[in-house]
Amino acid sequence: MNEEPLSVQGGCHCGAVRFRARIEVPAQGPLVAHACNCSMCRAVGFQHLIVPAADFELLAGEGDLSCYTFNTGVAKHYFCRHCGVKSFYVPRSNPDGYSINLRCLDEIPAGVVVEPFDGQNWEQNAGALAHLSKKENR
């Protein structure tokens, strides 16, 4: 069904925060990242690759992270307290996973496609992302 998962690493600008993630590549079609137009993602230029929590590992920098929440408080926006970069977070759409910022990976996977996501109309569209953090649906 799926090809061999990719192992990717990334982190913040100053290098204090480092992570590793396993990304399932669809057998049919490209790996898709999402460029959300909500107020937060637009401001920080976040491009989402959502993975199940079991496929995410923080390698370094736990003590270097600050957390920002707003609105419902479900999303946990983690920023490096030194350089301010948000390389990953726990999204409201997928509280059982992590969204890693494509732009913070050491190497961008070949063939990845960035598609728009309408986060300005969150309530109508968020359900389209829920499956991305479920291992059994991948």
Short note summarizing the structure:
This protein is mainly beta and 138 residues long. The chain contains two helices and ten strands. The strands form two sheets. It has a seven-stranded mixed sheet with strand order 6-7-8-9-4-3-10, with no helix packed on it. A three-stranded antiparallel sheet has the order 1-2-5, with no helix packed on it.
Query: Strand tally, please?
Result: 10
Give the termini separation. Answer: 9 Å
Which architecture does the CATH hierarchy give at level 2?
Answer: Beta Complex
Provide the gyration radius in Å: 14 Å
- Mass-distribution shape: globular
Order of helices and strands: EEEHEEEEEEEH
Tell me what you see in this structure:
The protein is mainly beta and 138 residues long. It has a single domain (6-133), classed as Metal Binding Protein, Guanine Nucleotide Exchange Factor, Chain A (Beta Complex). Helix content is 7%, strand content 36%. It has two helices and ten strands, in the order E-E-E-H-E-E-E-E-E-E-E-H. A seven-stranded mixed β-sheet has the order 6-7-8-9-4-3-10, with no helix packed on it. Strands 1-2-5 form a three-stranded antiparallel β-sheet, with no helix packed on it. It starts with 5 loop residues before the first strand and ends in a 13-residue tail after the last helix.
